[in-house]
Amino acid sequence: MSSPHLPSGGTRGDKIANWLPLGVFAVYTALPTKNYYWDGVSFALNIEQAGRIGSPSFWRNLIHPNHLLYNVIGYFAWTLLHSVGLRVRALTVLQAVNMVLAALTVLILQRTLLRLTQSAYLSVAASALFAFSAVYWRFATDADAYIPSVLLLVAAFHVLNLAEKPRPLVLGLLHAGAMLIHQLAIFFFPAAAIGIYLKAGRRGLLQYSVLATATTAGVYYASYRLQQQSALGNAGGLEAVGLNTSGPQTFLHWLTFHSADSAFTFSILKSLTTTLANYPRLFFGGTAHLLRFFGPFMLITILLLAAVVSALTIRIIRYPVQFRVNLKPTLPLTVAVIWLVTYAVFLFFWLPWNTFYKLFCLPAIIVIFAGFLARYEGPRRYRLVLFVATMVLANLAFYIFPYSRPDYNQGVRFALRMQPLWSGRTIVYYSDFIVDDWYIRYFNPQTTWKPLNPANGAESFAQEAGREIETGHDIWLDTTAAEALMQNSPAMTTHFYAEQEDTVPHRHTIRFYRWRMESP
Question: Are strands 426-430 and 448-451 parallel, antiparallel or unpaired?
Fold first, then answer.
């Protein structure tokens, strides 16, 4: 039944709700990000270099313990499109899939909120708040594993709270799927466990826990074996050289893999200040330096933003907000609070400055926020809609639109600059395949990249490069290769010419050199 204090919105609200996911998808497709997250570029590189199923590098390229099945799913989506004649790059496929899944997440969340609040108006406004929050909007138009994992968590929340009968097996499969897409989904477990226990008792809890754990652990171990065997190019190869791939310690080490710069921090004050700053950044993104993209589009958006902020301010001043105090907990709000608290505690100590990790608890924030707003009593003043419009326009002007410009990302900008200079005869040497190289290589697929052999000296490399040039190749060095050669033999700099660089103030410089056979 509809709340007497919060009208359901009627037919007009229902129509808006039905069109919301399509509208969200249209906005996503209009401004896909060009500030690609480096992981997404790495995913696309791995997918395109995986080869055919059964090739020595296939599973090694596609399987990663932090986001186990994401590249596998991306690979099959990419090859499916190629099989029907659509020659699109893997990065484009991953972006398009994320846009579709992000809009689907909004659809499920809106339906969930509609059932919880009995208000089409509130469910649409809160879902728009979610869809166009800065970080979600940005990653919904990028290639990453967060969006599909969050989709499955939102679906699990919907099934847990709104299914007429307890569905512990469905809940277990959805949660297992989320964890197999990204490991961080594991922290949904306390919320799901308590929720299914309150709804279905110990038997339901046991069914959910066993299925989710067994499915996730089984797929992880099978994937681990495939990747380790793929590393040597033949099944059982690791055992043949005396390495035990089935040992629990080795498997656990692989399972908990993380990059060297990822770690817990126990500086309470620093974590507190960072955390308090990061949660608002989930909703409002961008910085003043993005005004360098100022133009007609941003001018119109900023003028609209000023008008909306003025209207919102006037309504807040003229119509004070009143809420009913209702502390009676419900199952959905209980699950949402546990969901949020679990992630908030973990992310307080684990990389608290990574705002995008908080995407995993963003739906819980929205559910709690909508539950709080459902207590409002009084006539509708559309302050929530004006607030959402403020966020949308601010993010559009100062975050999303600048990120959609190809020249925003330094690596992409440099890669596009090198396209007319490099051909299929170009060989690029590197000492360390750094993040900048990921972008530059991906957007120059016509080139060949080779590692600089540290065992060989500078003279040996000069001879190798000379042979390549004699066969008609162009030889280039990235920053790491040039520095390694100069450190080994400073005289090697006389072979460098046609320097190309891109410098960003207060950041770093990308610099590549062409190699010539003899110094002048």
Answer: parallel
Q: What average pLDDT score do residues 448-473 get?
A: 89
User: Is residue 10 within 8 Å of residue 120, measured between CB atoms?
Assistant: yes
Note whether 429 and 477 are within 8 A (CB): yes
Contacts by 84-88 with C-beta closer than 8 Å and gap 24+? none
Q: pLDDT band for 250, please (50, 70, 90 cuts).
A: confident
pTM for this structure? 0.91
Mapping DSSP onto H, E and C, the string for 191-260 reads: HHHHHHHHHHHHHHHHHHHHHHHHHHHHHHHHHHHHHHHHCCCCCCHHHHCCCCCCCHHHHHHHHCCCCC
**How does residue 274 score in pLDDT terms, banded at 50, 70 and 90?**
very high
**First and final CA of the chain: distance in angstroms?**
86
Record the tokens describing residue 262, joined without a space: 């990822």
Cα Dmax for the chain? 86
What would the pLDDT profile of 189-216 be if each residue is shown by its tens digit? 999 999 999 999 999 999 999 999 999 9
Band of residue 240 on the pLDDT scale cut at 50, 70, 90 = very low
Distance CA 70, CA 48 (A): 14
Contact 476, 426 (CB under 8 A): yes
Classified as helix, coil or strand, 350 is: strand
Residue 454 pLDDT grade (very low, low, confident, very high; cuts 50, 70, 90): low
23 Cβ contact list (under 8 Å, min separation 6):
none
Beta bridge mates, 510: 502
6: which DSSP letter? B
The span from the CA of 98 to the CA of 147, in Å, is: 6
Per-residue pLDDT of 363-405, as tens digits, reads 999 999 999 888 877 677 889 999 999 999 999 999 999 999 9
Residue with tokens 């100022």: 294
For 29, other C-beta atoms within 10 Å of its C-beta total: 14
* Nearest alpha-carbon partner for 421 in 483, 474, 478, 497: 474
Residue 286's region, left for phi above 0, alpha for psi from -120 to 50, else beta, is: left
> What value, to the nearest 5°, has the Cα angle with vertex 389 and ends 3 and 384?
25
